């Protein structure tokens, strides 16, 4: 008899807005041989019905729920994909983990280091894992660049620049949950630039020190609309990080100058191999650079990251984008805010329980907290 094919994992989505329909649903469809979408949760019944109709047209018979706990009890999913506003992420992630499901949640996974440690405790208690969506790590260009840098092929990293300069108008901030600390956890540092500097940290490794500034230049929001940082890495490299939603010419960019080459990534919301450029140092022979181009082209996407999560689930190991790896990116955000609001350098590992920036990115600062 032929071998029995492996059981497809049962997946549920929480939230049925644009990020789920535009990114998570196509990712689930692309991995349809490994995972089956069986349920969806949304407090908006009409939007939920529209999503179920769209999913059905793609071949998925999805049960609809307006309550997460009811869905978890009835469906017992293996995997929960969360695409709700940020303030809901922690509670929904903890509930899913407690029910035994793995989680893939949109960024930011939570709004503070205290919340992250709450999620970590739920992981430890349940044996399930929670990953945050940082899809830019998973394109072939990023995978290859990290291999070249960490192997030493490009030489020691020296200088880097990370830029997320986007534009958001007043209509964007008319959505009630945008622009407040309680709903988003911060401004472009948390909600926009986090994808780029997560990739920077992924490429360069452990950061050790942050100095920063932040400002409200245009928008009347509680949080910032621009931030800048100077960063020192454990390998000695120095970097600048810019996060903005007031820039008419929108671009996402990373540049890393190493001893043997400069590697540059320029894109907006996603990249492929063509977006990566390598410039060899004058003393590097041309034949050596032939290996600096990936053999295959896999665009960065939710599809690519979901594949990595499914691989980890099949192997019973912690997935990428979770645990201390993902916590380091959130700690970097907290450090940037603390450095910007206090005017003092912040070092990796210093924001601990008892520090006001451990429980909120604004740290209760009188000029930045909601009560200002």
Q: How many structural domains can be distinguished in the coordinates? A: 2
Using the alpha-carbon principal axes, give the shape: globular
CATH architecture of the largest domain: 2-Layer Sandwich
Main sheet attributes: strand count, strand direction, barrel closure: 8 strands, mixed
Strand content: 15-25%
Query: In terms of per-residue confidence, which ranges show pLDDT below 50 for 5 or more consecutive residues?
Result: none
Q: Kindly, what is the distance between the CA atoms of the first and last residues, rounded to a whole number of angstroms?
A: 71 Å
Protein topology:
Elements: E1 9-14, H1 18-30, E2 35-41, H2 45-57, E3 63-65, H3 68-75, E4 79-82, H4 89-98, E5 102-105, H5 113-126, E6 130-132, H6 140-151, E7 157-167, H7 181-184, H8 188-191, H9 194-204, E8 207-215, E9 226-233, E10 238-244, E11 246-258, E12 261-267, E13 276-280, H10 302-315, H11 323-342, E14 346-347, H12 356-359
Parallel strand pairs: 1-2, 1-4, 2-3, 4-5, 5-6, 7-10
Antiparallel strand pairs: 7-11, 8-9, 8-14, 9-10, 11-12, 12-13
Q: How would you portray this structure in words?
A:
The protein is of the alpha/beta class. The chain has two domains: 9-132, Rossmann fold; 137-299 and 326-359, 2-Layer Sandwich (Dihydrodipicolinate Reductase, domain 2). Helices cover 34% and strands 24% of the residues. It has twelve helices and 14 strands. It has helices at 18-30, 45-57, 68-75, 89-98, 113-126, 140-151, 181-184, 188-191, 194-204, 302-315, 323-342, 356-359; strands spanning 9-14, 35-41, 63-65, 79-82, 102-105, 130-132, 157-167, 207-215, 226-233, 238-244, 246-258, 261-267, 276-280, 346-347. The model has no long low-confidence stretch (mean pLDDT 96).
């Amino acid at each position: 008899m032929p071998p029995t094919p492996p059981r497809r994992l049962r997946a549920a989505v929480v939230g049925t807005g644009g990020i789920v329909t535009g990114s998570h649903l196509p990712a689930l469809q692309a991995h349809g041989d490994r995972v089956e979408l069986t349920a969806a949760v949304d407090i908006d019944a009409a939007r939920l019905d529209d999503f179920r109709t769209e999913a059905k047209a793609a071949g998925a018979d999805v049960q609809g729920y307006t309550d997460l706990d009811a869905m978890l009890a009835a469906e017992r999913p293996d995997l929960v994909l969360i695409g709700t506003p940020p303030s809901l992420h922690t509670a929904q992630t903890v509930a899913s983990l407690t029910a035994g499901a793995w989680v893939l949640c949109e960024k930011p996974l939570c709004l503070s280091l205290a919340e992250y440690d709450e999620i970590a405790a739920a992981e430890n208690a349940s044996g399930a894992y929670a990953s945050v969506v940082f899809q830019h790590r998973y394109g072939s260009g990023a995978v290859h660049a990290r291999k070249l840098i960490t192997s030493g092929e490009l030489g020691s990293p020296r200088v880097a620049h990370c830029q997320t300069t986007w534009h958001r108008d007043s209509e964007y901030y008319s959505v009630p949950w945008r622009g407040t600390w309680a709903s988003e956890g911060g401004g472009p540092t948390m909600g926009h630039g986090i994808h780029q500097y997560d990739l920077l940290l992924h490429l360069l490794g452990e950061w050790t020190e942050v100095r920063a500034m932040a400002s409200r230049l245009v928008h009347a929001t509680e949080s910032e609309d621009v931030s800048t940082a100077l960063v020192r890495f454990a390998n000695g490299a120095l970097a600048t990080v810019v996060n903005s939603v007031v820039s008419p010419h929108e671009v996402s960019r990373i540049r890393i100058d190493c001893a043997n080459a400069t590697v540059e990534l320029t894109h907006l919301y996603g990249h492929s191999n063509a977006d990566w450029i390598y410039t060899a140092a004058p003393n590097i022979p041309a034949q050596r650079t032939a290996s600096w181009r990936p053999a295959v082209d896999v665009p960065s996407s939710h599809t690519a990251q979901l594949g990595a999560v499914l691989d980890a689930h099949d192997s019973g190991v912690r997935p990428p984008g979770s645990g201390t790896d993902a916590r380091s990116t959130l700690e970097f955000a907290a450090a940037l805010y603390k450095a910007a609001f206090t005017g003092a350098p912040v070092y990796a590992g210093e924001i601990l329980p008892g520090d006001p920036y451990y429980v909120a990115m604004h740290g209760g600062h009188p000029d930045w907290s909601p009560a200002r």
